[in-house]
Amino acid sequence: MHLSRSLKIFLVAVCVRAQSPIVDLGYARYQGTVSPTNISHFLGIRYAAAPLGDLRFRAPQPPVNVSGVQQATEEPNQCFQASNGLSPTNPLENRATDDVISTEDCLFLNVYYPSDASGTPAGNLPVLVWIHGGGYLAGQASAYNGEDVINQSNRGIVVVIIQYRLGVFGFLPGSEVKENGTLNAGLLDQDAALRWVNKHISKFGGDPSKVTIWGESAGAGSVLQHVVANGGKTQPQLFRGAITSSTFLPSQYRYNDRVPELLFSEVVAQVNCTGVTDTMACLRTADANALQTANTQINNGGFWGTFLFVPVVDDSFITQRPTLSLRQGKVNGDVILTVTNTFEGTDFVDQSTGPTANVTQYALNLFPDFGPVQADRVGSLYAGLGTPLFPENAVQGESIFICPTYFLLEAFGTRAFKAEFAIPPGLHANDMFTSFAISLDPNVKIQPVTSITPPWGRWAGSHTEMLFNKTDSGNEAVVVPVKTDDALLERCRFWDSVGDLTNQ
After folding, report:
1. Which CATH number covers residue 335?
2. 390-397 and 372-382 are packed helices; what angle lies between their axes, rounded to 10 degrees?
3. Domain count of the chain?
4. Where are the alpha helices (DSSP H) in 39-166?
5. DSSP one-letter string for 9-36
6. Which secondary structure element, helix H or strand E, spans residue 64, and what is its range?
7. Omega within 30 of 0 (cis) for the link into 236
8. In the chain, pLDDT over 70 holds for what percent of residues?
9. pLDDT tens across 67-120, in order?
């Protein structure tokens, strides 16, 4: 019997589809794909119900049950986006996202795991959960390929990449949100995703007791939020390891302070909900595109390099200022690896103002609760640091990125490692992240023959960190342990002392 060419193609396609892995999550069954290198991809798994209608501005809810097999073969829609800054400490390669649709219905995650050709996982592997950055205003799962990280780990981990509500949709502040909604919805989305991992990751070959969370910029700031969440007593334990690449901690006001209430009022005005009987009901029925327009315009109107829709102290998930929790050692997680970039603040300062830069005035603009005493102290601490503009870059970088990193290190004590990138990370640096995710120790090498990194020491006590640099010729990487600059730590002590005024 002879088969037509089209029928043969059809039968081959059916066979390939039949070999694709299917995972039953209880509320839905998802079918993924297996790459030519035997890494299984499950893209666009729904971990929470669509936050639409009455669920807008509320905590994430469990996903609804769906029948049949859902295809997990395409990148999920991204959450609504707005302006964001960029940090060079992100070691994952960004992929083009121009064709990804923005929508409110965006609470999805991607899972990647090493498998055989039919998608059967190895089992009981450590898990790395990636939280994207973007100033809490931008970012998406589709920008990152978890397969790259699995290859770097020598097929030793499972990778999960999550999405969460951004901007006004995820971080609308104010007392009315507290009374008739949920503050920090974007953080609670992340928490829901971590709880999904805790419940379901074993079905993809992951060990829920060996989870490491890792983020860059606002993703690293999110890691910090989960470290201090629930007063450091989150149950069950959702992660054992934490990695921060450029920890982002902007002013985090109490939900009903002056600035959050002004932001709420501005959103209400821009979507024509002023003067109505039920403001939150009006906001929930407002057109999503109108909210997105307000989201963009309000943030663009802020001081250069600042991000307005960010986490707040909500008295429930985030019980107090993060720096206060860190000072008290109230943290979740067992071990932390932190990474900073030498020039953290440059992308967030208007570089055209160099000739007229005034670091004292800059401090007042950046932290509106400062008075002359605090601003003058900033001026004296940062006077004479490089070019006229460099002090402003340093204030932005140290107060919002670098010093919060050292606060994390101090909170974890002997359970902390520190790295500094004087150059953007390359392959010589990537193995430390996967080594840490597997063993909680960057000294345990995955590929020791090719590693050029000397032994790591704990940051506590000696204040030693690993510097990733390059030779003067720029042709070779150089990795050396160095002592943290004492003058930098002195400036960080100042920022810690004024945390009630920077609202960090």
Report:
1. 3.40.50.1820
2. 110
3. 1
4. 146-152
5. HHHHHHHHHHHS-EEE-SS-EEE-EE-T
6. none
7. yes
8. 88
9. 999 999 999 999 999 864 333 334 444 444 556 789 999 999 999 999 999 999
